Amino acid sequence: MDRFIVISGCSGGGKSTLLEELRRRGHQVVEEPGRRIVVEELGSGGSALPWADAPAFARRAMEMSIADRSSAAFAPGLVFFDRGLIDAAAALQHLTGEATLAALRQFHRYNKHVFLTPPWPEIYVADRERRHDLSAAVAEYDRLRMVYPSLGYQVHILPKVHVEERADFVLSTLNSA
Hints:
Blueprint: E1 4-9, H1 15-24, E2 28-30, H2 33-44, H3 54-72, E3 79-82, H4 85-96, E4 113-117, H5 134-150, E5 154-157, H6 163-176
Parallel strand pairs: 1-3, 1-4, 2-3, 4-5
Organism: Rhizobium mayense
Domain NadR/Ttd14 AAA: 5-166
InterPro entries: NadR/Ttd14_AAA_dom (IPR038727), P-loop_NTPase (IPR027417)
């Protein structure tokens, strides 16, 4: 759907900060499924966590992403997704070998322009919900950098600049398209 724009890329690369800026500018934002799942699982003592049962975590992220897309259909204007279905499907395929990405060529489409945050070691921080190290984040980024174009998306690597400039870059790219 042309109104659904994905902001993805390297963990700790500034996605959430960028999305907060886009929200501040009046756009709809859908929070990252992975972070929401980790908070829920930690709160309930569940095991669908990336460090405990990564395939279960990725399956939940796919389910949540599909539900997020359905809910976002009613939102007006552009809707920015902090990661989403493709990220979760790519993770599950990487972990299990299941061909989860194949159906996404035709179904559950996003805007053809996808924005990736590159690895940014100077701002990377692990926390309660993000326990992996920078090398794992970079490996995931490298996979996503290949997955999105393979599904027909045009990838734009976000510059390592102040958040306002990053938001301007995203919006001007979309306005030029």
